[in-house]
């Protein structure tokens, strides 16, 4: 009986501790969590800034921003971000290989256990396919004679 009561108290205490853990959404607010580059030309790097605001009551530190592969290069702020201030994580994509892509950047904030993922998507077209796409987009399609 004593073991049962002790076990129940331990469960309740553990639940209270976990319920009080901060979530990343409690300290940082991103303008967007994903970005679609659309169709991009092969070998022409693409870059997008993921803007965010510190919505906590204290400065925050971005510990890491790690890409899912070597074709994506995230850049994070080096200094702490003061409360209420805005900064950015820049996602660079090298566009080396043709085809669709779906990449993630895992962002870790100091003091928060669970990281957040930012996503970039799009399709890389080789030079010929991209020229055709651009021509169709602008209505300057050449017709054969």
Main attributes of the structure:
single chain; 145 residues; alpha+beta; Immunoglobulin-like; 4-stranded antiparallel β-sheet; 4-stranded mixed β-sheet; elongated
Word description of this protein:
The chain is 21% helix and 41% strand. It has 145 residues and is of the alpha+beta class. It has one domain (22-138): Immunoglobulins (Immunoglobulin-like). A four-stranded antiparallel sheet has the order 1-3-6-5, with no helix packed on it. The longest helix has 18 residues, at 2-19.
In short:
The chain has 145 residues and is of the alpha+beta class.
Q: Tally the beta strands.
A: 8
Output the CATH homologous superfamily. Answer: Immunoglobulins
Structural class computed from helices and strand pairing: alpha+beta
Report the end-to-end length measured between terminal Cα atoms.
92 Å
DSSP strand (E) fraction?
Answer: 35-45%
Largest sheet: 4 strands, antiparallel
**Overall pLDDT confidence:** 89
Instruction: Report the CATH topology name.
Output: Immunoglobulin-like
Shape, principal axes of CA atoms: elongated
The CATH architecture: Sandwich
Which CATH class applies here? Mainly Beta
**Widest sheet, order of strands:** 1-3-6-5
Count of separate DSSP helical elements: 2
Q: Give the proportion of residues in helices.
A: 10-25%
Provide the succession of SSEs.
HEEEEEEEEH
How many separate domains?
1
């Amino acid at each position: 009986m004593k073991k049962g009561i002790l076990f129940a108290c331990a469960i309740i205490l553990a639940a209270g501790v976990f319920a009080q853990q901060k979530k990343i959404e409690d300290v940082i607010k991103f303008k967007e969590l994903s970005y679609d580059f659309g169709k991009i030309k092969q070998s022409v790097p693409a870059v997008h800034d993921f803007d965010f605001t510190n919505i906590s009551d204290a400065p925050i530190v971005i510990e890491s921003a790690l890409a899912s592969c070597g074709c994506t290069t995230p850049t994070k702020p080096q200094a702490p971000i003061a409360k209420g201030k805005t900064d950015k994580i820049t996602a660079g994509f090298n566009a080396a290989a043709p085809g669709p892509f779906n990449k993630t950047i895992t962002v870790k904030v100091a003091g928060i256990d669970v990281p957040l993922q930012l996503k970039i998507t799009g399709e890389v077209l080789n030079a010929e396919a991209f020229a055709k796409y651009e021509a169709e987009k602008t209505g300057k399609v050449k017709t054969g004679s």
